[in-house]
Amino acid sequence: MMRLCIVGMGYSGAWIGRAAEAAGLEVVGVRRAASADVIGFDEAAVAGLVAEADFLLSSVPPWAEGDPVLARFGAALRARRGWTGYLSSTGVYGDCGGAWVDESAAVGTGRRTARSAADADWQALGATVFRLPGIYGPGRSAIEAVREGTARRVNRPGHVFSRVHVADIAGAVVASMKRDFRGVVNVADDLPAEPRAVTEFACGLLGSPLPPLLPLDEAGLSPMALGFWTERRRVANGRLTGMLGYRLRFPDYKSGLVACLRSAS
Q1: pTM (global) more than 0.85
Q2: Angstrom distances, CA of residue 4 to CA of 13, 40, 166, 195, 209
Q3: Which keywords does UniProt give here (predicted)?
Q4: pLDDT recorded at residue 223
Q5: pLDDT, mean of residues 153-178
Q6: CA-to-CA distance for 262 and 265, rounded, in angstroms?
Q7: Where are the domains positioned within the chain?
Q8: Architecture of domain 3-264 in CATH?
Q9: Above pLDDT 70, what percent of the chain?
Q10: CA distances from 201 to 205, 210, 250 (A)
């Protein structure tokens, strides 16, 4: 049985692991702290897994000082012969003023300089780089935010973001492994939208009242959340649906949130 090693077995990694197992792969997960079914990042066996697994995926974000996976396992990564993947971010494109952006656009002009550097370093190793926008899915969506009273509606017309359901991240990664797809690919749905539209749709599904519409400086957002409001872009997915030939399970936030609601019922 062919083996996939996932370094960074978090929310997206777990979804990818389940999809890979359903496709007939053995999956070995690596995380900072070991558990019953996950290997610890500092264990000696990890270097061998990184070098020898048929498929390797890193979902570990870079630290301020650089990418910890590249720093620790650079030699093992350079020795690899199998498919290698890396989960990056569409934040590498910076602010595009709300315009559409594809994989040919310049990177490194935004606030995520460490991510841009890691993105380039993984490409230099021959990795397939998946650039992801806002990730949502069961347990991490506007449905939960509305139910928990943490949803916000920010009055900032034209401030558009892209997003993707976590099931489509998993599906795109598995499709890439099956087809030995190489290069950079945006994994985003077809319908970029203002965040308030997503909240309003979730409220409609739940029959909940709308949160108050607030200006950005009164929305009570954390510094990290505020960072997302410094940039606008619509992420094009033509390479995903064309060259890779992947068909989105959830082509817009509406179908995705309906599925999230059903899974939570």
Answers
A1: yes
A2: 11, 16, 18, 35, 45
A3: NAD
A4: 83
A5: 96
A6: 5
A7: 3-264
A8: 3-Layer(aba) Sandwich (3.40)
A9: 100
A10: 6, 10, 15
